[in-house]
Amino acid sequence: MTHVPLEHVLFVSAGLFLLGLLGVIIRRNLLVIYMSLELMLNAGNLALVAFSRFNNNLNGQIMVFFIITVAAAEVAVGLALIVALYRKRQTVHVEDLTAMKL
Amino acid sequence: MQTLLFYIFAGLTLLCALLVVANPFSRNPVTSAMFLVLTIASLAGIFILLDAFFLAAVQVLVYAGAVIVLFLFVIMLLSLKEEERRQIRKFSLITGLISVVAITAVFARAFLSGKLRRPPPMPAVAGGTQPLGELLFSQYLLPFEIVSVLLLVAMIGTVLLSKRTLE
Predict the structure, then answer these.
(1) Fewer CB atoms inside 10 A, N or C side of chain A?
(2) Which chain B residues have a beta carbon less than 8 Å from that of A16?
(3) Whole-model pTM?
(4) Is the minimum CB–CB distance between B88 and chain A shorter than 8 Å?
């Protein structure tokens, strides 16, 4: 890993983030939107790890550790919400879920 | 060799992420979940190349192991049919492309400002289990305990939400 400059790692991170953002905006399935959110979180993790490596500082990796924990908790709660919503409305298509009242 | 490996993993990550978001052959959520596994595995490879060994292991265990299994369970539980090919609305496509282009411009400005150029990396601090653990249990002890409370709250919330009657 001696010859890869920091910018190239950040390019990958930015590309991953943009793909996640595109997915959140154009996809209509709640589950796929959730997966795109995970992609965006992973892009942030990659940037943090890269900066941590290139600055010789482990604090960034600790941050990534906490982000992974919080993301796991978020996925658990979010999927429980999706299942509860599906029980009421029989759909996970966001265009059918525009009313705020169940 | 490691440089080549980095570019292979980087290309694989971006390709699989693209297939998660916009797969031209299938709109099935299961396919998206499978490509998400590949994305995360190649990201773990990049983490290893960046000397973050512990995080690479955690990435595979937590994301590929736990999160994706959760996703697949929910997909199977809801027994989703192939998402019918509704027309992707022009409006959402245009707004999506506009916001992506805008953020690309912000990133490009940041990259081109030239502050990032540094000499190739110095001798590494390897992110093994021991140095991370020492840091986690000394300097970051309080956040660590708070995160454990957060996990407890998430668990109770999930159990509560999954009960048959929400009332």
Answers:
(1) C
(2) 13-14, 17, 39
(3) 0.89
(4) yes
